[in-house]
Design a protein that fits this description.
The complex is a heterodimer of chains A (about 210) and B (about 575). Chain A has seven helices and ten strands. Chain A is α+β, with helices and mostly antiparallel strands and about 210 residues long. Chain A has one domain. In chain A, the strands form two sheets. In chain A, strands 2-3-4-8-5-6-7 form a seven-stranded mixed β-sheet. A two-stranded antiparallel sheet of chain A has the order 1-9. Chain B is about 40% helix and about 15% strand. In chain B, the strands form two sheets. A nine-stranded mixed β-sheet of chain B has the order 1-2-3-4-5-6-7-11-10, with helices on both faces. A two-stranded antiparallel ribbon of chain B has the order 8-9. The chains are: A alpha+beta (about 210), B alpha+beta (about 575).
C-alpha cells in the first residue's frame, strides 16, 4: 500500500509513544522515518525494530580516546542523544554504538539533524558497509545492516542546510503487515470509547436536522 | 520587545509589537476577530488579483439533487477542481459529529482536472471520508450536511418564484455546514510539502479555504437545481444579494486545539504577522480623509454586525452585549476631527484599554482593515515550513533563563493543587477525535496528550535547577529524555515569542473554546456561536464574493459581514 509522508511521521510517532517512549523521542523518530521515506529507504521496519522493546535507560561512557561509547545501543532511546552530543559538545566528534538494533533509523535521525544544523555524518558499520549523510544526500556503500551491528559514527560541520530531495509524488510504498503493526502500536495511545467521553465532541448535544 | 519591522519612513514613532504576555493568553485569544490577513481574505484577494474563473465541467444531478459535480479554477498557473458528491441521507444518520458515518455531501479538492476514472474512484471513496483511501492527486477532503430547515425553505421558495425569508437567511446563514475539512496527507492524499512551493497555496490553509469557497458555490447551484426541477415554470434563481449572505456553516470542536499547541511556530507566525501589521498601522503619523472615512464606514458596519450577532450561549451573549455598548462609545469618540489629530491609530489602540477585550480586539481588526497596502505583504510570512529544532549545545543556565523569561506564567502554577490538573486531553479511539476528559472522573489520563505545557515546563525547571548550569542540554537529555519535548519548545520560544499560549491548558479554568475562536478568526470566520465550552458553530465566507464576482472591483470589502437587507 501507499501512504503519505504525513502518515509515516504521525503513525510512527504515535507507535513510538504507544511503545512507551517519551513524546520528545517519538517526535524525532517520526521525523527520522519521514527523512528515510523521502530518500526511498524502508522506514517502517527500522522503526518497529527499534521501538518494540519500549523505553530503557541509556548507558554511555567515554573511552580513553574521547569516543562516546554506547554499549547495547537501542537506537530509539539513545539515537537522538548520540547525535545531540556529537553536534552539541565540541569535545566529542566520534561515537561508537555497540550492537545497535536499527542502523537505518540511526541514519534517519542523523539526516534530520544534518539538515537542521548543517552537518555531515559518516557511518562505518561492522559488516563493512558505509554511509554518508548530509543535508543534501544519503550515500551508501555496501548493504545496510538491518539489525545488531556496531556503528562507528563521526561528524563535521558543513553549514549546508538546504535539502531539496525530490518528494515521492505518489506517496510511499509500505509493506501492509508492517504498517498494520505500526498502526496497532499507535492505537495504544487512543482512549477507549465511553458514554461520557462522547458528550465532549463537536456537534454533541444538538439535533443536527435543524 | 523588538520594533515592528516597519517601513523606514514610519520608524519615527518607534511603534513596538504588543507583548506575548498581553497577546498570548486565552482571554484575549478567545476574543479575536477576523482581519484582512485572515486566510479566507487572503485567498479571495488572490482569486481576484488573478481574475480567476470558476467553471463547472461536470454537473450530473438528478431532479432531487443527488449526483456529482466538478468545479475547476485556475490559480497560480495550476488548475484545482472541487469534486462534489451529493447523496441521499436518512435524517436519523445526519449528525455533525466527527463520529458520523454518512453525510449529505462529500468533497475532494483535486490537483488538476479529474478524468472519468478519477471520478469513479472518488465516487467510491469520498463518501466514506475517513474510512476511504485517497491518492496524491487529492489535496483536501471534506463533507457537509444540509441545514435542513433553510435548505428546504429556499428550494420551496425558489420553486414558487419567490425569494427566501430574509430573517431565516439571516438567522441561519448557510445552506450546508461542513463537519470536517482535512488536508496535508491524511488518508493517503497529497502532503503539504507537495504544494508548499506553489505561490497560490503556500500560505496556511489556502487549499482548505479554496475547497470551502467552492463548496459554498456548489450549495448555491444545488439549491437552484432542485428548485428548478421541482417547478421549471415558476422557478427563479436565488438573488445575488441573498447568495452573498449565505456562507458555509461549520461545526468546530477540540481538534483545533491540539493542532495549535503542536504547531507552535505556525501559531507564532500568525500572531506575529497580525501584531506586526498592528504596529505598522500604529506608527502612522496622520491619515487622510479617505482612510478616516473608510474607518468610519467600517465602524458602522461593525456596529450592525455585532447587533446581528446573537447566540444562545450566555457567556458569549453577555460579552456581545458589553461589546455593543462599548462600540457605541467608540463611535462617539472617533469623530473625523479626533482621527485627524496626529497618530490616530496608536491613540485609538491606547485608549481602547478602557473597553472590553472583545472591543479591543475588534478595534485591532478595524484599524488594520483600510491599510491593505501597508500590511498585506505580511500574509506571505504566515506559513511554517521549518518546524522546531533542538539546539544541543545550549547550556542549562541559558535554558533556565529562557524558561524564567518566557514561561513564568507556567512556573507560577501550583500543580499540587487539584484544580491545576482538572483536565486531560486525549485522542478517542472513536474516529480519533480529540477530547477533553476530567481527570478524576474518566479513564484515560495515562494516555494524555502532551498539551500540559505548563506542567512540563515546571517539571523541566525543577530538574534543570538541580543540575550543573554549565552542562549542555545534550548531556542533560541523555539522562532526562522525558524533557526532550519541552526543551525544544522552550528553545523555540527564544526566537518565536508568540509560540506559546500562556495558560495552563489542563487547569480547571481552561476554556478550550477560546483556542478555537482564535484559530477560527485567523481562518476568517465571524459570529462564533458556542454550543458548549468545547465546540462552536461558525459561518465561513458569509458576505464573500461569489464565483461571478471575482475580477470585479471591491471584492475585498467583506470584513464582518452583515445581512444585506439590514443595510
Amino acid at each position: 500500500m501507499r501512504v503519505s509522508l504525513y502518515e509515516i511521521a504521525t503513525t510512527l510517532r504515535k507507535a513510538s509513544i504507544g511503545s512507551g517512549l517519551p513524546v520528545g523521542l517519538a517526535d524525532d523518530i517520526g521525523e527520522a522515518a519521514k527523512w528515510l521515506a523521502v530518500r526511498e529507504c524502508d522506514c517502517v521496519d527500522p522503526v518497529l525494530t527499534a521501538i518494540v522493546a519500549g523505553m530503557s535507560t541509556v548507558e554511555m561512557h567515554v573511552s580513553d580516546e574521547g569516543t562516546l561509547v554506547f554499549p547495547d545501543a537501542r537506537i530509539a532511546v539513545c539515537g537522538p542523544s548520540v547525535i545531540d552530543l556529537l553536534v552539541g559538545e565540541a569535545r566529542y566528534n566520534e561515537a561508537y554504538l555497540i550492537n545497535a538494533d536499527s542502523a537505518l533509523l540511526m541514519i534517519g535521525i542523523a539526516g534530520v539533524v544534518a539538515e537542521h544544523h548543517g552537518m555531515e555524518f559518516q557511518f562505518c558499520f561492522s559488516n563493512g558497509a558505509k554511509a554518508q549523510v548530509t543535508a543534501d544526500e544519503l550515500v551508501t556503500q555496501g548493504e545496510m545492516p538491518s539489525s545488531n551491528c556496531d556503528i562507528a559514527l563521526t561528524c563535521r560541520k558543513t553549514d549546508v542546510t538546504q535539502s531539496k530531495p525530490s518528494i515521492p509524488i505518489q506517496g510511499v510504498k509500505v509493506a501492509i503487515e508492517a504498517w498494520r503493526q505500526a498502526e496497532n502500536l499507535a492505537a495504544k495511545t487512543y482512549v477507549p470509547e465511553s458514554k461520557k467521553s462522547r458528550t465532549g465532541g463537536a456537534g454533541a448535544g444538538l439535533t443536527d436536522n435543524d | 520587545m523588538t520594533l515592528a519591522d516597519l517601513p523606514q519612513e514610519q520608524t519615527h514613532l518607534k511603534a513596538s509589537l504588543r507583548s506575548p504576555d498581553e497577546v498570548m493568553n486565552l482571554t484575549r485569544m478567545g476574543s479575536a476577530f477576523p482581519t484582512r490577513l485572515s486566510f479566507m481574505r487572503v485567498l479571495v484577494r488572490r482569486l481576484s488579483n488573478e481574475n480567476a474563473e470558476v467553471t463547472r465541467p461536470v454537473w450530473e444531478m438528478d431532479e432531487d439533487g443527488y449526483g456529482s459535480a466538478v468545479y475547476s479554477v485556475q490559480l497560480g498557473g495550476k488548475i484545482y477542481s472541487l469534486v462534489a458528491f451529493s447523496t441521499p441521507l436518512d435524517p436519523e444518520r445526519r449528525t455533525d459529529r466527527v463520529i458520523a458515518e454518512a453525510w449529505d455531501a462529500s468533497f475532494t479538492l483535486f490537483d488538476g482536472v479529474p478524468n472519468r476514472q478519477d471520478l469513479d474512484r472518488l465516487e467510491a471513496q469520498a463518501p466514506k471520508q475517513e474510512a476511504g483511501r485517497f491518492e496524491a492527486s487529492e489535496l483536501v477532503l471534506s463533507r457537509a450536511n444540509k441545514s435542513v430547515r433553510l435548505f428546504e425553505h429556499v428550494v420551496d421558495c425558489l420553486s414558487k418564484g419567490e425569494q427566501p425569508d430574509t430573517d431565516m437567511i439571516g438567522s441561519i446563514g448557510y445552506l450546508m455546514r461542513t463537519t470536517a475539512v482535512y488536508g496535508n496527507g491524511k488518508f493517503g492524499f497529497s502532503d503539504r510539502v507537495q504544494i508548499a512551493d506553489r505561490t497560490a497555496l503556500a500560505g496556511p490553509f489556502q487549499a482548505e479555504m479554496l475547497t470551502v469557497w467552492l463548496i459554498r458555490g456548489f450549495t448555491h447551484d444545488l439549491v437552484e437545481h432542485i428548485a428548478e426541477a421541482r417547478n421549471p415554470q415558476k422557478f427563479v434563481p436565488l438573488a445575488k444579494e441573498v447568495k452573498r449572505t449565505l456562507g458555509i456553516g461549520n461545526s468546530t470542536g477540540l481538534g483545533m486545539a491540539p493542532f495549535l499547541i503542536k504547531h507552535n511556530i505556525l501559531l507564532n507566525n500568525w500572531m506575529k504577522a497580525r501584531e506586526t501589521a498592528l504596529a505598522r498601522v500604529r506608527a502612522i503619523g496622520s491619515s487622510d480623509t479617505s482612510i478616516i472615512n473608510q474607518v468610519r464606514e467600517l465602524l458602522t458596519r461593525a456596529l450592525l454586525h455585532v447587533d446581528q450577532w446573537n447566540v444562545d450561549d450566555q457567556r458569549q451573549m453577555n460579552r456581545i452585549e458589553v461589546l455593543r455598548t462599548d462600540l457605541v462609545e467608540v463611535d462617539y469618540l472617533i469623530t473625523p476631527s479626533w482621527l485627524e489629530l496626529p497618530n490616530p491609530w496608536d491613540r485609538l489602540i491606547t485608549i481602547s484599554a478602557k473597553w472590553s477585550i472583545e472591543c479591543q480586539e475588534l478595534i485591532v481588526a478595524l484599524v488594520l482593515e483600510p491599510h491593505g497596502e501597508l500590511i498585506d505583504d505580511l500574509s506571505d510570512r504566515m506559513a511554517d515550513n521549518e518546524g522546531q529544532r533542538l539546539v544541543p549545545s545550549m547550556a542549562l543556565q541559558e535554558l533556565l533563563q529562557l524558561l524564567e523569561q518566557n514561561y513564568q506564567w507556567a512556573l507560577d502554577v501550583d500543580f499540587e493543587h487539584p484544580e491545576a490538573t482538572t483536565f486531560f486531553w486525549y485522542t478517542s479511539e472513536e474516529k480519533l477525535e480529540p477530547r477533553l476528559g476530567i481527570r478524576l472522573e474518566e479513564l484515560g489520563a495515562d494516555l494524555e496528550l502532551p498539551l500540559d505545557i505548563a506542567r512540563q515546563a515546571k517539571a523541566f525547571h525543577q530538574d534543570l535547577s538541580s543540575n550543573d548550569p554549565h552542562q549542555t542540554i545534550a548531556m542533560f537529555l541523555l539522562a532526562h529524555p522525558q524533557h526532550r519535548h519541552i526543551a525544544r519548545r522552550v528553545q523555540t520560544s527564544e526566537h518565536h515569542p508568540y509560540s506559546e499560549i500562556k495558560n495552563n491548558l489542563i487547569g480547571a479554568d481552561c476554556m478550550p473554546l477560546d483556542i478555537l475562536r482564535c484559530k477560527l478568526s485567523f481562518f476568517g470566520a465571524a459570529k462564533c456561536d458556542p454550543k458548549s465550552n468545547l465546540w462552536t458553530r461558525i459561518n465561513m465566507y458569509q458576505g464573500a464574493p461569489l464565483f461571478e464576482d471575482i475580477g470585479n472591483t471591491n471584492t475585498d470589502n467583506w470584513w464582518l459581514p452583515i445581512q444585506e437587507t439590514a443595510r
